[in-house]
Amino acid sequence: MALYIGTRHPERLAGIIALSCYLPQSGQLAAERAAANQSTPIFMAHGSQDPVVPFGLGEESRRLLEGSGYGVEWHAYTMPHSLCEPEVQDVRAFLRKIILS
Question: Taking the mean position of all CA atoms in its chain, how far away is CA 58?
């Protein structure tokens, strides 16, 4: 949901955080994306052992977003569909960066 809404939202967002997810309806991105968030920083993180949302879907979404001109900060963690302390630290750093810039 974060990637779908964030790329299509008509008003500028400070950032998009997408954890263990993918971009649904990616084939419609070019026609539906909002210019307001083209330069919005995107943080994506995914567990390489995720049995719920396959890691490949996350990687495919990252490549599509980057190919469409979005700036994506990508992180992969050796974990299942979960949250780990290094991920929390990376999210914290991302939030600090976008809030303080």
Answer: 8
Helix (H, G, I), strand (E, B) or coil at 47: strand
Q: Are 84 and 77 in contact (CB under 8 A)?
A: yes
The dotted CATH code for 2-100 is: 3.40.50.1820
Do 4 and 33 touch, CB atoms closer than 8 A?
Answer: no
Give the per-residue pLDDT at 101.
78
Token reading at 48: 């390489």
The confidence score (pLDDT) of residue 81 equals 96
Domain edges within the chain: 2-100
The backbone torsions φ and ψ at residue 81, rounded to the nearest 5 degrees and listed phi first, read -75, 90
Query: Low-confidence residues of the chain, pLDDT below 70?
Result: none
| CA 31 – CA 36 distance, rounded (Å) | 14
The amino acid sitting at 94 is F
Q: Is the four-CA dihedral 53, 57, 63, 66 of positive or negative sign?
A: negative
